[in-house]
Amino acid sequence: MSGTTVTPEYLAEDIGPSIIATASLTIAFTTVFVALRYYARHLSQTRFGVEDVIIPFAWLAEVGLCIIGIVMVKRAGTGRHVEYVLKTHPEGVISHYKGLFANQLVHPLAVALPKIVIVILFLRVFNQKWERRAAWITLWLMLGTLISYSVASMFQCRPISYNWDQSIPGKCFNFDLLANSSSVPNILTDLIVLVLPIRTVIGLKVSTSRKIGLMLIFLTGSVGIVASVIRTIVFVCTDPLLDITFNYVALVNWTIIEPGMYLLAACALSFKPLWRMLSKFIGLYALCTHTKSSATITTLPMPAQESIHLETLKTASSGGFTKLSSGRDTIDEELEVETAAVKPPGPGITVMRTVETMEEFPYATRASNVAVADPTESPRAVGRAI
């Protein structure tokens, strides 16, 4: 290292434990979030979809990045100054380059898979043509980026071993150009995921507070853009030839953090049943979702009888989400009353039946025990359960 005096304090400097801490916390958080995601889907009794198959592979890719980082610290001396590594175990430099090469192979997969899960969720939730078209374009762009950069990273040097051992004959193309260009489609797809749900949520005929809540939920899927931008800046500012085992620590950390944030966001989007359960447990269920109460409606003989048609909206959901359209609030089930005049069967004994119905209002839901007359023996109740 030119221009710097190699002192014992300099050689003793070690920032490798920061990688171990980052990797350990990431493994812990992603494991908990993945487990909670599947538990939330169990609570909502949602059928498994393709995203439920992708999530475990995304988790494995993320854990793989974490393990690579830990091995680089333990075996390659990553986090130490290169002078220390060359002095104590020179083979560590080769191990360091092998770790960087492994990161280049796993990172595109770890980033793409959770983002694909988020876009699949959008396809399940939104049904407007322009939204679905934009989501499909984004999905194919993610897949194309994943395949192209994985292949390019694999064959950036020929032979492959030239990536870590340049004492043998070989050649590489401009990897810096490849790495910098890979951030462009990543950030572009992040921006699409960020803005895609905004128009639909704003167009919903629901309260402002509910719009804000939905917006915050969907914006969760874009939190990875922050880590993606930071990682790009760190990469540009890292000199690949200067103190490689020490200066690459920040880049290794953000290589772990970026896909980890995407995975946490992809899991958190399905946590709605967990929030309901938690709010009920701590006594805030009435404020967060709805309250339950009972009411009985009685009937009297009327000159005309009207029948009730209760229609439950057919919804497509994923992890607690319900398909949205800009015309109506279909987040929760509601009852629709359809009336038709029918001649009464005449006076007589009124036979009552109790029907359990659920109706959710913007701020509260009541479960009502509605007494409904038997349509063959007496006039029926007319109106909406409250």
UniProtKB/TrEMBL annotation:
Similarity annotation: Belongs to the SAT4 family.
Source organism, top-level taxon: Eukaryota
TM segment ranges: 20-40, 52-73, 105-123, 135-155, 183-202, 214-236, 248-271
Pfam families: Fung_rhodopsin
Residue ranges of domain Rhodopsin in the record: 36-276
Gene Ontology cellular component list: membrane
Main location: membrane
Membrane topology (UniProt): Multi-pass membrane protein
Record keywords, A-Z: Membrane, Transmembrane, Transmembrane helix
Family annotation (PANTHER family): INTEGRAL MEMBRANE PROTEIN-RELATED, PTH11-LIKE INTEGRAL MEMBRANE PROTEIN (AFU_ORTHOLOGUE AFUA_5G11245)
Protein's name according to its UniProt entry: Rhodopsin domain-containing protein
Locations listed in the record: Membrane
